[in-house]
Amino acid sequence: MVADADWDLVDRAALRAELDVVARVARDLKLWVAVGGIDFAPGRSRPTNSLFVISGRGTIVGRYDERMLSRTKSLYMYKAGTRPLVFEVGGVRFGCAQGMESQYPELFAAYERDDVDCVLLSTAGNPEFPEVFTVEAAGHAAANSLWVSYAGAVGRHQPPAGVVTPNGAWTARCASADHDGMVFTEIDTSTGERARTWRRCVREGRTHVSAHR
Length: 213
Hints:
This protein is α+β, with helices and mostly antiparallel strands. The chain has five helices and nine strands.
């Protein structure tokens, strides 16, 4: 029998301590970090499944709460988030997505309208069809001229993490998902600019605009 999650069993102090450790390391290395966690707001019966954005100074500067929850999460576990999160680092605008939100193209289209350059997608994956979220991530990248970072679960038969270009191609990808891995890439914010501009014209009915503009 499935029942509501008993969040009283969770060691909230331990979770906060782990987040504090990540923040200290981010500060020491002067790195920006987006890390998953659970947010327990006072007076709220359920927590949110969240991504915490930590600056290179070790400060939490934003929190994204998963908005499009799975049936199990919605009925028994979390409260849904209500808004997107956009933040900027070094002139690059980032958006956030989580869980099964690759199933919702409107989220990625909305980030495109908000001039986001790269969406950070963090997910435990789809246990029944492991590759589906990576396929969707590549599709959203190509359809919206977005860079998409895919961070998935570690384990056999899981798709490896990586980064997709605005053309829908994987520019960097871990060798496998059997163990922890890391990839690096350089985000070019001009990539896909023409395609994004033209599609906006088409959506607005301004197809008479020169393709060279």
